[in-house]
């Protein structure tokens, strides 16, 4: 509707669900009176900041496809699901960790992040970071409850940064990065629950016996590049693993 002014909404203090997508909004301050708000969608506007007055019951926000450059000022204590997909965010260091203790899903696809520093959120379960410019993995040790991590279409060449405190991570998508060696894949041995891994479109996926070699390194893996491991593959990988252990003695 090409809205630029939503000051009329200040009167509707009991609104719980508000969708203001595809307008021309630059200012959300009139929403600060809506203290009962549970769900807010403001995709496709002209916002340059996600900063808002703290709303006590807000659980879901989508700021997708705006012009937001940082993550400052997001402080809603019950926020469980936050999307900032398709913005211009270069760093996550402005996140208010002390306030976002309910956040479980964070969507940051299609931004300009170069690092994961600042994303250490204790309750986070799903983190979507595809289509950024991430070169380094930092600050992941605080993601103790994370189960799903998407890093497709980034610029990772090494897999330093994963750690044993990520004891719930089950699904990891690294498709289309710059991981050239299976020695880097061996660094994922610190992830005790990893079950599904995607490495397609990395140079290492062209190595001979690639599937088998990954399974030798990560014997608990159940699925690689969408395909389940067969029993005979698991048996063969186990045999090779034991042989190499014997040789190393």
Automatic annotation (TrEMBL):
Ligase keyword on record: no
SUPFAM superfamilies per UniProt: L domain-like (SSF52058)
Alphabetical UniProt keywords: Leucine-rich repeat, Repeat
PANTHER family in alphabetical order: LEUCINE RICH REPEAT CONTAINING 23, LEUCINE-RICH REPEAT AND IQ DOMAIN-CONTAINING PROTEIN 1-RELATED
Name of the protein this chain belongs to: LRC23 protein
Species assigned in the record: Zapornia atra
């Amino acid at each position: 509707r090409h809205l630029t002014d939503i000051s009329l909404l200040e009167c509707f203090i009991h609104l719980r669900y508000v969708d203001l997508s595809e307008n021309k909004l630059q200012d959300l301050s009139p929403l600060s009176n809506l203290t009962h708000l549970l769900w807010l969608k403001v995709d496709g506007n002209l916002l340059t900041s996600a900063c808002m007055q703290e709303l006590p019951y807000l659980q879901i926000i989508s700021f997708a496809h705006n012009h937001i450059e940082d993550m400052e000022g997001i402080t809603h204590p019950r926020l469980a699901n936050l999307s900032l997909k398709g913005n211009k965010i270069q760093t996550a260091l402005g996140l208010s960790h002390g306030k976002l203790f309910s956040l479980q899903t964070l969507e940051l696809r299609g931004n300009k992040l170069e690092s994961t520093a600042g994303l250490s959120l204790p309750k986070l379960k799903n983190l979507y970071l595809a289509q950024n410019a991430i070169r380094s993995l930092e600050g992941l040790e605080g993601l103790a409850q994370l189960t799903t991590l998407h890093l497709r279409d980034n610029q990772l060449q090494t897999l330093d940064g994963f750690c044993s405190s990520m004891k719930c991570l089950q699904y990891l998508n690294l498709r289309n990065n710059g991981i050239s060696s299976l020695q880097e894949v061996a660094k994922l041995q610190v992830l005790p629950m990893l079950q599904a891994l995607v490495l397609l479109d990395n140079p290492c996926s062209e190595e001979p016996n690639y599937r088998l070699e990954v399974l030798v390194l990560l014997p608990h893996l159940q699925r690689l590049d969408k395909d389940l491991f067969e029993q005979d593959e698991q048996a063969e990988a186990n045999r090779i693993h034991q042989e190499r252990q014997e040789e190393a003695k």
